[in-house]
């Protein structure tokens, strides 16, 4: 197989090859580059990429970010009362970070510092879950990343305050490539809430984040991922999660920004009694595209997984949902449920939804389904009969559709901000429709 042409990424690859780093990161970067050079840029002939439009990436030449990061006001996205690590164009900004009063043994730091200190966690886990040989953008991230975030929760430790990882693209208008990296290792019986925020200050940037999350026995991780990249930017994210016995991983993924936003999530339930809950919400307009690709694999008995993804589409926007549940032969007593629901506000919006089940065990309970439709006219009529105008009725029903996901976000301030942003965007969409 002929590898992909490095032309769109050659400048970033060259910069990464000469960047000084601890040995463990250099070795991983080299492995990423070798995998990248063997892979092709995905084409629409491949089933997993059939509906993903990559034209903006194919025709670009992405540069590494500026050596000196931009100075950016992060107050619109900063969560009060949280532990905070801020990365500007992939570089930790210590002045804009705030991590204090962690429990003994807990680590919330950057990967370069941890690797330089000889962290065994970095050596053992970094790169262990990312699908370098199967996913071009996971390989690209690994080949060019310069730093990232490390969260380690020792056994039995609970961090009460949320941990926010804020990744800011400070593009000055150039087409830049960012490669955020995250490693979370939750020890036995530990617990934390992680908020991962990706925001953009403009420009046709490409971001390819990779997250690796390991939960040991009885660990609990609540994970909120918010994508608010610039409207001309693209994000191709990969997240891999591995759960041990009786651990619980809960995630809400919210996608609002970007011209193209695609997330590939792989979850492995690798211990009896593990549970994963994956929720998603995407709101698109104009020519935006939001893709969600999930594979949840049940390897052990008595595990549960739940997927609920909901989208609101306006303009000529597009969405893709590929949800796959795999139940291995030994995974008896599996309980797996999957649902994708989409609300179209425009005749020109398009959704491709493909829920899938692959079951090799015989004592399981698995369900899946998808819906694509418009607002319920009977519900609108009911609200109008109560004295509510038609447009207000439409707005209330649309917001109620979104709130089923947003209300699950465990951080009050973030939930309220995202609800407010959703209301604002729906109002803008409504005004645009009225002006046509």
Write structural notes for this entry.
The chain has 436 residues and is of the alpha/beta class. The chain folds into two domains: 7-270, no CATH class; 376-436, no CATH class. The chain is built from nine helices and 21 strands. It has helices at residues 10-17, 23-38, 55-58, 111-116, 120-125, 136-144, 377-385, 390-406, 412-435, and strands spanning 83-88, 91-92, 107-110, 149-153, 163-169, 177-178, 181-186, 191-200, 206-207, 210-215, 220-228, 234-243, 248-255, 260-269, 275-284, 289-298, 304-313, 318-327, 334-344, 350-359, 364-373. The strands form two sheets. Strands 3, 4, 6, 7, 9, 10, 12, 14, 16, 18 and 20 form an eleven-stranded mixed sheet that branches. A hairpin with a 2-residue loop joins β1 and β2 (91-92). α2 (23-38) packs antiparallel against α6, α7 crosses α8 and α8 packs antiparallel against α9 (412-435). The termini are far apart.
Compact summary:
This protein is of the alpha/beta class and 436 residues long. It is built from 9 helices and 21 strands.
Helix content: 10-25%
Number of strands: 21
Question: Mean pLDDT, nearest integer?
Answer: 91
> Could you name the ranges where pLDDT drops below 50 across 5 or more consecutive residues?
none
Which structural category do the helix and sheet elements fall into? alpha/beta
Shape annotation: globular
What is the number of helices? 9
Order of helices and strands: HHHEEEHHHEEEEEEEEEEEEEEEEEEHHH
Radius of gyration: 21 Å
Number of domains: 2
CA distance, first residue to last residue: 49 Å
Strand content: 35-45%
The major sheet is characterized as: 11 strands, mixed
């Amino acid at each position: 197989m002929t590898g992909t042409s490095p032309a769109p990424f050659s400048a970033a690859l060259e910069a990464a090859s000469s960047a000084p780093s601890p040995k463990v990161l250099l070795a991983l970067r080299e492995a990423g580059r070798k995998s990248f050079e063997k892979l092709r840029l995905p084409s629409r002939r491949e089933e997993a990429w059939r509906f993903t439009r990559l034209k903006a990436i194919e025709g670009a030449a992405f540069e590494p970010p500026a050596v000196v990061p931009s100075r950016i006001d992060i107050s619109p996205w900063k969560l009060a009362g949280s532990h905070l690590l801020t990365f500007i164009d992939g570089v930790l900004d210590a002045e804009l970070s705030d991590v204090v009063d962690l429990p003994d043994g807990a680590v919330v730091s950057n990967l370069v510092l941890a690797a330089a200190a000889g962290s065994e966690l970095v050596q053992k886990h970094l790169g262990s879950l990312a699908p370098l040989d199967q996913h071009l953008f996971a390989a690209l991230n690994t080949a060019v990343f310069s730093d990232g975030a490390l969260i380690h929760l020792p056994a039995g430790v609970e961090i009460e305050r949320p941990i926010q990882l804020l990744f800011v693209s400070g593009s000055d208008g150039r087409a830049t490539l960012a490669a955020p990296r995250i490693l979370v290792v939750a020890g036995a019986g530990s617990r934390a809430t992680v908020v991962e925020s990706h925001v953009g200050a403009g420009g046709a940037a490409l971001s390819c984040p990779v997250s690796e999350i390991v939960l040991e026995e009885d660990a609990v991780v609540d994970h909120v991922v918010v994508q608010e990249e610039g409207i001309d930017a693209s994000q191709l994210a990969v997240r891999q999660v591995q759960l041990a016995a009786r651990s619980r991983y809960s995630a809400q993924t919210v996608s609002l920004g970007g011209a193209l936003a695609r997330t590939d999530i792989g979850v492995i339930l690798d211990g009896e009694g593990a549970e994963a809950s994956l929720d998603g919400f995407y709101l698109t307009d104009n020519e935006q595209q939001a893709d969600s690709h999930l594979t949840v694999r049940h390897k052990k008995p008595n595990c549960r997984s739940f997927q609920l993804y909901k989208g609101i589409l306006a303009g000529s926007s597009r969405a893709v949902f590929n949800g796959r549940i795999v139940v291995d032969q030994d995974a008896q007593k599996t309980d797996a449920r999957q649902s994708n629901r989409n609300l179209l506000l425009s005749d020109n919006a398009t959704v491709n939804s493909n829920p899938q089940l692959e079951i090799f065990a015989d004592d399981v309970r698995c369900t899946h389904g998808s819906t694509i439709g418009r607002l319920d006219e009977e519900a609108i009529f009911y609200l109008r009969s109560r004295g509510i105008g038609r447009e207000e009725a439409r707005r209330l029903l649309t917001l109620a559709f979104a709130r089923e996901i947003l209300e699950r976000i465990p951080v009050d301030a973030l939930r309220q901000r995202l609800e407010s942003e959703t209301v604002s965007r729906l109002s803008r969409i409504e005004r645009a429709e009225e002006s046509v």
